[in-house]
């Protein structure tokens, strides 16, 4: 009988997210060689090649992509079981807001596990741009919100969660050389102002003496991905959120990191406090 170790699945998911053995090792607290050994054993267990190694990065094979959905489900189920039996019984209502890109990538796992552990808690989730979320929070309409912020200009009382590494991305049709992209105004795919990703992109280009043009603006992360995929322009995205069909551009001007933080009302209900602590714990684990 063969069993799948959830610790090995966590390592596989970390490698899928980071595309790097060394960064995956940092996430799961293991050495680079230990990560490589775990992946080798996982491939032996399934009898499938799960990753493709190149000199620059690691990519999932089609079998690896298929396994990722199952791995996420198994890890989430294990986490929900632990949280359910370790946590006290709580009930109540929580109003929670998050940017769309964070919600689409990270929230399904976090909120799914929390909901399974606390079935008596009623979650009301809003996804939109950071500025409207902050306005709703300040008006008392949200208990907790996730925000993107400049580490040098933090929102008052924000609780930093982690730093996002930002990268330039494009469709393969646009090419990768920065020197070739500076012959005219650089076409950009952007979020509406004010947006910390937008600010990082435009200020970095202006600092490099490059003119730019916002040819596509959308509040939707999915809309921006579609525009970049169509070859309309270049964009700035968190490294962990770059879709596999887009390429990360090398040797482009370096972008400063962005901080993801949590804002909570001064007086939180037990249910809202539990969600805040759960988010912080899950983020610390990754």
Automatic annotation (TrEMBL):
<dbReference type="InterPro" id="IPR050176">
    <property type="entry name" value="LTTR"/>
</dbReference>
<dbReference type="GO" id="GO:0003700">
    <property type="term" value="F:DNA-binding transcription factor activity"/>
</dbReference>
<keyword id="KW-0238">DNA-binding</keyword>
<dbReference type="GO" id="GO:0003677">
    <property type="term" value="F:DNA binding"/>
</dbReference>
<keyword id="KW-0805">Transcription regulation</keyword>
<protein>
    <submittedName>
        <fullName>LysR family transcriptional regulator</fullName>
    </submittedName>
</protein>
<dbReference type="Pfam" id="PF00126">
    <property type="entry name" value="HTH_1"/>
</dbReference>
<dbReference type="InterPro" id="IPR036390">
    <property type="entry name" value="WH_DNA-bd_sf"/>
</dbReference>
<comment type="similarity">
    <text>Belongs to the LysR transcriptional regulatory family.</text>
</comment>
<dbReference type="InterPro" id="IPR000847">
    <property type="entry name" value="LysR_HTH_N"/>
</dbReference>
<dbReference type="InterPro" id="IPR036388">
    <property type="entry name" value="WH-like_DNA-bd_sf"/>
</dbReference>
<dbReference type="Pfam" id="PF03466">
    <property type="entry name" value="LysR_substrate"/>
</dbReference>
<keyword id="KW-0804">Transcription</keyword>
<dbReference type="InterPro" id="IPR005119">
    <property type="entry name" value="LysR_subst-bd"/>
</dbReference>
<feature type="domain" description="HTH lysR-type">
    <location>
        <begin position="4"/>
        <end position="61"/>
    </location>
</feature>
